[in-house]
Every structure is written in structure tokens, then in C-alpha cells.
């Protein structure tokens, strides 16, 4: 599948090694050797203004239609419409980033992002179905029913040491924190500048419908062929500009089954602490991408090993440090592996269930401490849930609809042990029963022992008829605990005491 990539990467190396032939342009060379991608300075695009501080990028490579596998039938018809319409209105427009990377890898892109030299207001004039959004990045959303095509304007450099005439307006539209984090980024530029501002080399890929070519600005094709996640530019600087790139490096490595290049991996552990500067709603979104896209377990392990987890979920990380293979680890592992299997089978998954599993033991531990302090079991559980959730919300803004579900799942765990009389029947009618039962099964797999018996009892109860259910309840002791195993345990104890 990747043959064309290997071929073109091989060809690129050849081009890079051989001296340019006098009197011949790069496109002349490409015309004489069809297998070679063209290396040129994005001719036909707005020329890059010379900047103080040379470009971080190598010369752009162009792969013409016969040198890549991207066909228009693999592209969202709405994204194509946006490209054609912008071109017709006289603007440059490209598909960019993940969608091109994924198409080259033979994967189905999650979304199609467009980039153009039209400014957001100009994009709005071209499309009636368009709304402008964002403060940090001002973007146009072109809406086609349920599909939204995001259209961004080429992003430029920040003013910094720039002394050209744009300095004043740039100073107003871009801003960064003392740690080098970019807070606002509405500086428009050329396609080359835009490519330089992208995160990884595999994401600085552009596709145009005006010539059906792929433009590779950062040797991304070579990185794809070498299965390498590599930041563009100096990794320290790029992580400081936007620490979320740490999470993105991890996510792409597992999603694409690639390695993070050594220089890109090296600063992650030290700089993970910068994630605390990221707004909590953005961290929630990024965490959902890490945990609900089929690679949750691999991402979790990488986050644990790089100390990213310590920043995001310190409550869980602390338990994992105390007992690396303990029940908190086992429950997380089970929950995440099950989630991955469900995603793989196209079954629905919810962040509520995953976060409930990741935070169960911090809640349980806190609740037990409060019971020792003299609180009732129910009060202790309520306070523990509130405390742990308040604590988490400071870092990750889990929306209320999910925290409410988490509370339901947690609160029902203790009710699942109390089954005497009509209680089990009532619980079964609860709309939240299914989630709570699934959660109990996970806990049983992590802990075994009495929880396994409890989960088995509930499984039998659900599938039994009325008489069978009554019989199951009759086997229970007054407090809802199964009589059978308890008698056996007492008997054993007596025998060993003899
Ligand atoms: P996927 O959609 O599969 O999550 P993606 O690479 O398309 O992966 P998006 O979040 O859709 O990721 O972003 C689209 C493109 O925007 C990326 O490919 C990258 O070029 C650029 N980009 C996104 N986030 C950043 C960032 N934090 N820093 C720099 N560039 C970014
Ligand atoms: Mg994308």
C-alpha cells in the first residue's frame, strides 16, 4: 500500500544527493523523471516573504497525481465543494494535515480540514452556510447538514523580532505567555509559513484540486515511510508554544502505529507539567480523543510512562505509583481494553464510563476514610464523589452530563450489594442499572473474590424468570449477602481452627 511512498521517498533522497543541473529548474527535472517528486518553492502560491531567521523547512516537494494514491472519491464531497468554490472565487485552497496523512496511509480520515489564503470574512462571503468561530484561532465553519468543513486561513509568523511593516497589526492579533505558550494566533501568512506552524512533519501535507498534487513541506512523506512522529522545528520551543502537542504526539504514535522520533520524545517527561496551563475544556477534548478512538489502553500506558498522567489525573497516578499492578491499574486496564474492543466493533462508548473507571479507586479510598471518620456509608460516598470530581474539574472539564452519569454508576455500586426483599427488583428497573452492572463486572474482573460472586448473581437474576428471581433472593441472607458461600466460608474457618 505504501509502495508509492517508498518510491517517492527513495527518489527524494536521490534528488537531495544529486547536484542540481545547471539551467534546469526543479520542475524541468520532474518532467523528465516521472517517479521523482518535484522540489520547488511552492511556485504559483503567494511567495513567502523573506523573514529574519531562515525557514525551518526544506524545499517543498510536489507529488503530481500519478505519484500518489489520493483519489477524489476518497474525499468528502462537501470538502471538495469548498475547495472548488474557493478556487472559483479566486483564492488558493488546500486540504491539509491529518486528512492527507491518513489518505496517504490508506486510512479513513476523521475530518477534512481546508486551508486558504482567503481571510475568514472573505470565506464567509463565499459561503452562505458559513459561521466564524474561535478566538485563539479564528476559523470559518462551512456547514453541510451534519458535516462541518473547517476552513482556516494560512497562519503566519508571530511578530517577535520582525521589523517589517506588519509588526503593529500582528502585535494586536497574536499573543503569547511568559512560558512561550501561544495564546492568540490570528496572524495570516503564506502557505510556507502555515506549513511551518503545523505540529508534525507528517501533518504539513497539502492537497490541491487545481492540479491534484500533494505538497509536502517538511519531508512528511519520508517520515510516513519511516513511521516517525517528528515535530517541525525545535521540540522544546514547539511544546512550549502549545503543550497539547505532547498529547498529540502520543495519540498519533499509537493511532498510526509509529514511533515518536527521539528528539521529539526526549522533552515530553520534563515538559508534561506545562499541561497545567491548558484550559480544562481543551484538555477534556484532547483526553476524549486519546481515550475514545480505539487506542485508549496504549495511550494510557504511554501517558503513565511519560508522567503526562500525573498532570492530567494525579489522583489515579498516585495510586498507580503506590501499587503499579494493583486494582486501580487492573480496573483501568480492563475498562480501556474493553473500550478499545467496543470502538473496534463500532459499539457506542461514553467518556462517563471510562472516567468512572479511572477515578473509582480514588473515590472509594476517600469514602472509606470518611467512614472511618464516622460518616454513614451513604454520606461518605456522596462527599467522596464530590471531592474527587471537584478536584478533577480543575484540570479536565468533564461536562456535567457525564459527571452525573459517573455519580450514578458509583452510587449504585453499594446498592448492588443490597438485594433482599424487593430491592433487587427495584434496582433492575432503574434506567442506570445497565451501566452500573457493567461497571460491577469490570470491578469483579479487577478484584475477583466476592465481587465475582456478586456480578454472577446479578447476571443470573437478570436472565431468570420471576420464580427464578425469587429463588435467588431467597438464597440471600437478611443483609442481601448470598447465604451459600458465607456458610461455606464459616465451615472452612471452623475446620482449620480444629
Ligand atoms: P485527527 O483529525 O486524526 O485527530 P489531525 O492531524 O487531522 O488528526 P486535527 O486536530 O484535525 O488533527 O488538526 C488538523 C491539522 O491542524 C493537523 O494535521 C495539523 O497540521 C494542524 N494542527 C492541529 N493542532 C495543532 C497544534 N496544536 N499545533 C500545530 N498544528 C496543529
Ligand atoms: Mg483532522
Structure commentary:
This protein is an alpha+beta fold. The chain folds into two domains: 3-226, Beta Polymerase, domain 2, CATH 3.30.460; 316-497, Orthogonal Bundle (cca-adding enzyme, domain 2), CATH 1.10.3090. The chain has 25 helices and 13 strands. A nine-stranded mixed sheet has the order 1-2-11-10-3-4-7-6-5. Strands 8-9 form a two-stranded antiparallel ribbon. The radius of gyration is 28 Å and the shape is elongated. The chain starts with a helix and ends with a helix. Residues 9-36, 40-53, 159-172 and 484-498 have low confidence and may be disordered. It binds adenosine-5'-triphosphate (ATP) and magnesium ion (MG). Magnesium ion (MG) is lined by residues 97-99, 110-111, 113. Keywords: ATP-binding, mRNA processing, Nucleotide-binding, Nucleotidyltransferase, RNA-binding, Transcription, Transferase. It is an enzyme of class 2 (transferase).
Structure summarized in a few sentences:
With 498 residues, this protein is α+β, with helices and mostly antiparallel strands.
Q: What compounds are bound to the protein?
A: adenosine-5'-triphosphate, magnesium ion
Strand content: 5-15%
Strands in their spatial order, largest beta sheet: 1-2-11-10-3-4-7-6-5
| CATH first level of the largest domain | Alpha Beta
Overall strand count? 13
Shape: elongated
| Beginning-to-end CA distance, first to last residue | 71 Å
Main beta sheet strand tally, sense and closure: 9 strands, mixed
- Estimated radius of gyration: 28 Å
Which blocks of ≥5 consecutive residues have pLDDT under 50?
Answer: 9-36, 40-53, 159-172, 484-498
Mean of residue pLDDT values: 85
The CATH topology assignment of the largest domain is: Beta Polymerase, domain 2
How many independent structural domains?
Answer: 2
Which structural category fits the helices and strands? alpha+beta
| Helical content class | 40-55%
Annotated CATH architecture of the largest domain: 2-Layer Sandwich
**CATH H-tier superfamily of the largest domain:** Beta Polymerase, domain 2
Work out the helix count.
25
Amino acid at each position: 500500500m505504501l509502495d508509492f511512498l517508498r518510491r517517492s521517498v527513495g527518489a527524494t533522497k536521490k534528488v537531495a544527493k544529486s547536484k542540481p543541473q545547471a539551467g534546469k529548474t526543479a520542475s524541468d527535472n520532474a518532467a523528465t523523471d516521472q517517479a521523482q517528486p518535484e522540489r520547488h518553492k511552492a511556485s504559483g502560491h503567494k511567495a513567502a516573504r523573506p523573514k529574519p531567521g531562515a525557514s525551518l523547512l526544506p524545499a517543498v516537494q510536489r507529488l503530481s497525481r500519478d505519484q500518489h494514491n489520493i483519489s477524489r472519491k476518497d474525499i468528502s464531497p462537501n470538502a471538495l465543494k469548498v475547495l472548488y468554490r474557493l478556487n472559483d472565487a479566486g483564492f488558493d485552497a488546500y486540504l491539509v494535515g491529518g486528512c492527507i496523512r491518513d489518505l496517504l496511509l490508506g486510512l479513513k480520515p476523521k475530518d477534512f480540514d481546508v486551508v486558504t489564503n482567503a481571510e475568514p470574512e472573505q470565506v464567509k462571503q463565499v459561503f452562505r452556510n458559513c459561521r466564524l468561530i474561535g478566538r485563539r484561532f479564528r476559523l470559518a465553519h462551512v456547514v453541510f447538514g451534519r458535516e462541518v468543513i473547517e476552513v482556516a486561513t494560512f497562519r503566519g509568523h508571530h511578530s517577535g523580532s520582525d521589523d517589517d511593516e506588519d509588526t503593529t497589526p500582528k502585535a494586536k492579533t497574536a499573543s503569547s505567555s511568559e512560558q512561550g505558550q501561544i495564546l492568540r494566533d490570528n496572524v495570516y501568512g503564506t502557505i510556507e509559513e502555515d506549513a511551518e506552524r503545523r505540529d508534525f512533519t507528517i501533518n504539513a501535507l497539502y492537497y490541491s484540486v487545481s492540479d491534484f498534487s500533494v505538497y509536502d513541506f517538511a519531508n512528511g512523506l519520508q517520515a510516513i515511510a519511516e513511521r516517525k512522529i517528528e515535530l517541525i522545528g525545535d521540540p522544546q520551543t514547539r511544546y512550549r508554544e502549545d503543550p497539547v502537542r505532547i498529547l498529540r504526539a502520543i495519540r498519533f504514535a499509537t493511532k498510526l502505529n509509529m514511533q515518536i522520533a527521539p528528539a521529539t520524545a526526549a522533552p515530553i517527561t520534563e515538559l508534561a507539567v506545562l499541561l497545567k496551563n491548558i484550559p480544562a475544556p481543551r484538555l477534556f477534548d484532547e483526553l476524549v480523543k486519546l481515550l475514545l478512538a480505539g487506542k485508549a489502553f496504549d495511550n494510557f500506558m504511554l501517558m503513565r510512562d511519560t508522567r503526562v498522567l500525573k498532570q492530567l489525573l494525579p489522583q489515579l497516578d498516585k495510586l498507580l505509583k503506590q501499587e503499579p499492578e494493583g486494582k486501580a491499574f487492573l480496573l483501568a486496564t480492563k475498562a480501556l481494553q474493553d473500550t478499545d474492543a467496543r470502538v473496534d466493533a463500532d459499539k457506542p462508548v461514553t467518556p462517563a464510563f471510562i472516567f468512572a473507571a479511572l477515578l473509582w479507586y480514588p473515590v472509594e479510598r476517600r469514602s472509606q476514610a470518611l467512614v472511618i471518620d464516622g460518616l454513614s456509608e451513604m454520606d461518605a460516598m456522596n462527599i467522596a464523589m464530590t471531592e474527587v470530581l471537584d478536584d478533577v474539574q480543575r484540570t479536565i472539564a468533564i461536562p456535567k452530563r457525564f459527571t452525573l452519569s459517573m455519580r450514578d454508576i458509583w452510587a449504585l455500586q453499594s446498592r448492588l450489594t443490597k438485594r433482599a426483599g424487593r430491592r433487587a427488583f427495584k434496582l433492575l428497573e432503574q434506567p442506570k442499572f445497565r451501566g452500573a452492572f457493567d461497571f460491577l463486572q469490570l470491578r469483579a474482573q479487577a478484584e475477583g473474590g466476592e465481587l465475582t460472586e456478586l456480578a454472577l448473581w446479578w447476571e443470573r437474576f437478570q436472565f431468570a424468570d420471576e420464580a427464578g428471581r425469587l429463588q435467588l433472593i431467597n438464597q440471600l441472607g437478611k443483609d442481601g449477602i448470598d447465604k451459600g458461600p458465607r456458610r461455606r466460608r464459616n465451615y472452612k474457618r471452623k475446620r482449620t481452627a480444629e
